[in-house]
Each structure stands twice: as C-alpha cells, then as structure tokens.
Amino acid sequence: MSKIYEHIYDLARPHLNTRNNDIHTNVAYRFALRLLEDEPGDPDVVIPAIICHDIGWIKLPEALHSKAFGPGFDPDLRRVHEVEGVELAREILRSVAYDPHKSREILEIIEGHDSRLEAISDSDKIVKDADKLWRVTSEGLAIDAEWFRQEPEEHLHWTAVQIDSWFFTETGRQLAWAALEKAGYTP
C-alpha cells in the first residue's frame, strides 16, 4: 500500500470501529485491488473511495444499523451513512492534500455507493463491486446472516439470488459465484 493510501487508512480507521467495518473495509480493499487487475478504473480514485466508503456508519446509532441495509432495509437510514461519509472523507482527503479533481470523484462515489443503482464511472463500478464482494466471503456471509436473523443456508440462497443484479463488472460476478461455490452453494 502506498504511503498516501496508508495515511488515508490511518485517518479512516477510527471511523470504522462499528458494524464490523474494520473487517469489511479490509476485505473490500483486497477485492478492489483484485478488480483493478482486470477491470478499467483509476487506483487513485478507487483505493481512497473503498477505504472511506463506509466511514459514515459511525454517525448512525448502532441500534439502527440493521434497519439500514439488507432485506427490508430503510433507504433513508442507508443514505445517512453515505451523506455523513462524504463529510468525513472530505476532511480526510483535505488533511492529506489529496488531488482535488480525484477527491471530487471519490466523494461522488461515496455519496451514492449503496443507494445509486447505476455506476457513474469505471472506478465506481469497481468500488460498488468490491463493497458487495464482501457479502460472499465466509466472514460476510456469517456476519450478514446474523444481522439479518437468517439461517446460514437461507442467507446463502438469498445472496445467490442477488448476484446477477448486484455486480457491474464481469470480474465481480465471476469472483462472487466462485466464492459462493466455495461457501457450499449449489444451484
């Protein structure tokens, strides 16, 4: 990880101490690097965006987290973490004197990384896919099943049904199906 990304991660880390976001962000970061190998995107946009995409959850009371995502979520609650995340990320990017042009795209990606149904750029596609790929890892499946109060098998099946609509890149889709098969999913 380059020094600037490390610095951004260090500044984001205190905001990731909720909702297992420390684990989630680490996994999503690794997926972003993997997606950048095969998909077009700007690492100088993707990496800071994936590091900071969920820092806004720290501003939403923990009791409301499970109502803000997953089956039957409240879209207004979900938006809170995006809007708050933009403000926190703006402060972080300014404090490291990050390129203003790239910062604008990073903040735009964070602002709609969950709620915006279309991607605004190739970099946004990678951030959206890296974020969702967490959900098909063993950690993500276990944590999400618990959050959504689903049995692991039920959650695995629910997740599999979402794959084709969730992912923007072919690489993301392929990685998701491979991870689900590894987790024991059989169609």
Write up this protein.
The termini are far apart. By secondary structure, this protein is mainly alpha-helical. α5 runs antiparallel to α6 and α8 packs across α9. It is 67% helix and 0% strand.
Comma- or semicolon-separated keywords:
mainly alpha, 187 residues, 67% helix, globular
Which secondary structure elements does this structure contain, and how are they paired or packed?
Elements: H1 3-12, H2 21-38, H3 43-52, H4 62-65, H5 75-95, H6 100-111, H7 122-133, H8 138-147, H9 152-166, H10 170-182
Could you spell the SSE succession in H and E letters? HHHHHHHHHH
Provide a count of the helices: 10
Compute the gyration radius: what is it?
16 Å
Oligomeric state of the chains?
Answer: single chain
Distance between the termini: 38 Å
Alpha-beta content class: mainly alpha
Summary, kept brief:
With 187 residues, the chain is mainly α. The chain has ten helices and no strands.
